[in-house]
Amino acid sequence: MVDMTADTDQNDAGELRTADGQPLKSSLARAQRRARTRAAILVAPLLLFVLITFVVPIGQMLFRSIHNDGFTMHTSISDGVKTPIMVNLRDWFDDNPRGTEPDEAAYEALVMDLRLLRELRAPGQVGTRINYEHSGSRSLFTKTARRADRLEAPFKEAVLDVDEDWAEPELWSAMRTASNPYTLSFYLAAVDMTTTPEGDIVSVDENRQIYINLFIRTLWLSALITGLCFLLGFPVAHLLAILPMRTSNLLMILVLLPFWTSLLVRTTSWMVLLQSQGVVNDVMVAMGIIGDDGRIQMMYNQIGTIVAMTHILLPFMILPMYSVMRTIPPSYARAARSLGATSWTTFRRIYFPQTIPGIAAGSMLVFILAVGYYITPALVGGSDGQLISNLIAFHMQNSLNWSLAAALAALLLFGVLILYWLYDRLVGIDNMKLG
Amino acid sequence: MTVTPQDEAFVSFDRVQKSYDGETLVVKDLNLHIGKGEFLTMLGPSGSGKTTCLMMLAGFETATHGEITLDGRPINNIPPHKRGIGMVFQNYALFPHMSVAENLAFPLEVRGMGKTERDAAVARALDMVQMGEFGGRRPAQLSGGQQQRIALARALVFEPELVLMDEPLGALDKQLREHMQYEIKHLHERLGITVVYVTHDQSEALTMSDRVAVFDDGRIQQLATPQALYEEPENAFVAQFIGENNKLMAEVTAIDGDTVHVKFDDGETGTALAVANTGVGTRTLLSIRPERVTLNPTNGANAVAAEVLELIYHGDHIRCRMRVHGNDEFIVKVPNAGGQGPLEEGQKLTIGWATRDCRALDA
């Protein structure tokens, strides 16, 4: 107990206590709990909303990128009953290591499984799953499953009789990979790699590589667009910051005007301006700068993507820079001038370093938005102005390979997080001001 | 040092006018000559044009008319960074992204001074303001008073002959401000630099300056030593602005050399020192310092009946609001000497003042 003769607010261990002997820490915690509970209740709706609309979908997407049960489980569309499929073949895979030549037992297991698939009307599902890894497999599965009931031992010859493609080791390798619903194969595919029948991980042929180049192009174009936004936005933000409030508010409306116009309208107006029969080309032809046969292709290629996205993302660069510049008192520049610095030195050494938090925030914002931009490149990008998000959309909507789309999206997410981390290490995240 | 002929002036404003909008003059016909090594304070209420004058001297504003010369050469067309004038700003304007030492090295760096020389000069300047150990800190890690010292050191580190200070102590608390006043004063004396100091705080101006220029409405109302300014204000504005002041309105009845005879509105008469050129029959404003009023005077030149309305205890003195010549706002400072019998509210007594302490100014 507390020694009342000594300092009453300290016990032997030196722990602080309140006047009535309660430990100070628990007393403080109790006093703060009420305020904290109230704050928690206030943010609870938002927390719930974020959880349902953000954390759960992203979690599901990440799960889908490593989990695909197209080869292992069939869910009936009508009553939702789940039936394990390809059980016999999976057992054979478990008993035989990777690289084993498929023997009679393997083919027998395959035929048994195909008979079940036919019963469940599921050969298409399994074929699609294998098709992701080994193209041309879907028709192989549907065709063979149709005849599975009529096949008799020896099954190896019977199956190869239906289609010789069944002998391909790549096909068996793909089936082995798919036999485990948890797989990294989608991530491998997303970085243009594949697993050989022997189990080695190698890059796919040069002429079949898509994603790595697209990732590089996405990052490069985003960096370029960020740089252009910075070059165009910095003088504007500076002007807005030094003008009297009334004039700068008027100009600010012009900066914000694009926000009030639909993204689609802005993108299509760039199409009107930049296409080969468009306004810009017409004017240049009329002025004699270029001949009628020398019209510049500025749309449906990278130029179109760069121009339209720079325009659309410019306000996201200007606003954070403006809000930072506004807070820099003119007395800093005056002090520098009175200390003997020329106006250029003052800008370089005094003004510019203080705008870095705004530049960083704007660049970060523009870059992250650009990396994930979809609609503008889809409309004006043509083939070489497409970004990774366009391919993610393709896999979501056309090829229906959601696991690959998820893997691509997850890679994009990790990439941005790594950049964020790098930024924090180099510049410091607390050095960023969004407004 | 108090009077400097124009041709010897270190800094001179010659018929300088300044207008921002082309309609009103912020500075009206300013003539001011500042001697080498002088500490001159520009004192005035906000909007009186004092800061504009400083900014014109520093080169951040251009004079609309007139000429400013520094050490004999006109500087109207010299950009600020070539004037070689040190400046201390109200909010210190220490560069937040540089350490204290880097802040101090900046003016030397832009002058192309070598690294070793620079470091030595920075260390000297830091020692001068007793901040030797703070070179590695960021300005944000310093207290207001420390920032102020660094700002001072930065303005002095490149050894300018003229230093401008724009309300440098405005953001400090009272005690620190008084302490810094002495420090700046001592630095000025030790280094022999010329200082032009802008403030709206009259006690600051009186404490530090060799001469004070009181600004109002774009003009210098009075340019004098602190003592002359307080003791002998030349017009009502200065009397009112510097120190506390009782105002009594009266009519001039006769002029006798330095002395004017006046008749107050309640019919009583008195004498005052003639300051403004007022003629017989004109209204005049009499100005009396609260501490120059005596209670129960023995010689009754300006003896007048008064009634105590309010007593305010101030520790070292007691402020006593009285009704005198019909004026309810007449303040008398009674020293808290202890021996005196206490005044009471409602008490009637006689007070008086010497003729030379009652200055007849323009009404």
Automatic annotation (TrEMBL), chain A:
Pfam families according to UniProt: BPD_transp_1
Membrane topology: Multi-pass membrane protein
Main localization category: membrane
Organism: Rubricella aquisinus
GO BP annotation list: transmembrane transport
Record key words, sorted: Cell membrane, Membrane, Transmembrane, Transmembrane helix, Transport
Protein name (database record): Putative spermidine/putrescine transport system permease protein
Location within or outside the cell: Cell membrane
Domain ABC transmembrane type-1: 215-423
Automatic annotation (TrEMBL), chain B:
UniProt keyword annotation of Mitochondrion present: no
E.C. number(s) listed in UniProt: 7.6.2.11
Database matches in InterPro entries: AAA+_ATPase, ABC_SmlMolc_Importer, ABC_transporter-like_ATP-bd, ABC_transporter-like_CS, Mo/tungstate-bd_C_term_dom, P-loop_NTPase, PotA-like, Transp-assoc_OB_typ2
Coiled coil: none
Top enzyme category: translocase
Family named by the database record: Belongs to the ABC transporter superfamily. Spermidine/putrescine importer (TC 3.A.1.11.1) family.
Protein name (record): Spermidine/putrescine import ATP-binding protein PotA
Organism: Rubricella aquisinus
Gene this protein is translated from: potA
